[in-house]
Amino acid sequence: MALTVVYAADTGHVVGALALTGASTGVGSGAPPEVADLVGSALPLRVSLGDGRMATLPLSARELAVASVDDEPAALAEPLAFGVEVTTDGKPKPALVRLASWPDNIALATDGLTLTVKVAVARPDARGRPGVPTSKNTHVLAGEIPAQQTQVTLPVTLVAGSEHGVLVLAAGWAGQLRTEKVT
After folding, report:
1. Phi and psi at residue 4, in whole multiples of 5°?
2. What is the tens place of the pLDDT at every residue in 100-136?
3. Is 140 in contact with 127 (CB distance < 8 Å)?
4. Strands (E) located in the chain
5. Distance separating the N- and C-terminal Cα atoms of the chain
6. Whole-angstrom Cα distance, residue 20 to residue 32?
7. How many helices (H) and strands (E) would you count in the chain?
8. Separation of alpha carbons 115 and 102, rounded Å
9. Computed from CA positions of residues 14, 20, 26, 29, in that sequence, does the dihedral angle turn out positive or negative?
């Protein structure tokens, strides 16, 4: 048995993990399956909005990568808490990294999504990739937390009181997939 993870290529966040057995796992050959073989054209991440409603935040297969990694059972239960680091030649390292948690850091307002991390960012490359679905559209917001800052607001227009699924992938921090109400 081997652990295979699907991860966001730009931030390293694990967005799915599975334990594979058999010849097609790539174990021994060093070659994991192709992303499209595992997720098709997109990986749909879902979060409940209550009352039987679901928000779906699809991640395009073009934005994802696959890695065969060392066994990490916790990644099966909580994939967004882990990340994949790549070597200087672009190959994934075999050990997953446990990412820092940051609860209560997302504020969704009528004019934007504000992300706040616990510690000021030393490098301005701590990218955020939050997704906010509104009706049938998913808005993918991209931005950077400025150097030495703990917060960024990404513009999006939303209706006060509405609820949305939010996916936040900020490099170095555990991913967040949850429901937020617009204030």
Report:
1. -120, 135
2. 887 778 888 999 888 887 776 554 344 444 555 554 5
3. no
4. 2-8, 14-20, 42-50, 53-60, 64-69, 82-83, 97-98, 106-109, 112-116, 127-128, 131-134, 137-140, 143-144, 151-155, 163-168, 176-181
5. 46
6. 10
7. 2, 16
8. 10
9. positive
Joined together, the tokens standing for residue 100 give 């820092």
| pLDDT tens-digit map of 39-80 | 999 998 888 887 888 888 888 899 999 999 998 989 999 999
pTM: 0.82
Dihedral (CA of 29, 14, 156, 181) sign: positive
Distance (Å, whole) CA 127 – CA 19: 29
* 15 token code pair: 């967005």
For 33, 34, 156, 168, the CA distances from 112, given in Å and listed in that order, are 38, 35, 5, 14
Tokens 């990568």 belong to 65
